[in-house]
Predict the structure.
Amino acid sequence: MKPTYQDALAYFGVSGAHPGGLTLTKFLLEQEQITDQTTLLDGGCGTGQTSAYIKKNYPCSVTSIDYHPTMVKRAKKRFEKENLSIQLVQGSLEKMPFPSNSFDIVLVESVLIFTNCKNSLAEIKRVLKPGGTLLLLEMTAERSLNTMEHQNMCEVYGIEKVYTEKEWVHLMKEAGFPKVEIKLGHSVFSHMMTGMETEEEAIDITVPANMQLEGKLMDHSYILYTYGNIIGYRVYRAIL
């Protein structure tokens, strides 16, 4: 099986791969009412950067889930090193091992697009409490893509579709989220012009060189700089 973009992120321990990184995550969290009674799920936690930040800065209960075993190992190592009480689970957003009505907030950062979105949204709705909040930061096409543009992006990221803003909103409403708002959005290029500093951790340089996986990260850079005016991101806030 050929390595994927997600394999590359896991191998090199890339944290905050989503646009805006931890800086944008901090801004989003500041807009929410998070107390010691809040239960929060970090869906697709990766190396655990966001989960660790939340646990250190908010009094809420934090649960983290990721499908990739290498990411789970990295997150586990982080939580243990920083002595953080975070429940960490290896599993898929499409079928989560949590009871219904478990969480007040589900935070998903550039993960849903790598899954079956309809299945994942149905599961997120199931595990959210009534009145719960989904914070979703996802790659979004600025317009409908032509066949070649769409094919190139899907091949690099190993995904089935790049959704427009309208399509993302439709998916969420179809999944049972009646209230969906756009909190923030930019194309790749317009985001660069905002001057928003991205807090990025250095990649893991202790791992052996791997040209295939390095190539995946280079392919990602190619997509950003080739299509930076027609793809970007949106922050969606959906309420049950």
Q: What stands out?
A: The chain has nine helices and seven strands. The radius of gyration is 17 Å. The beta strands are 39-43, 61-66, 87-90, 103-109, 128-141, 179-187, 231-239.
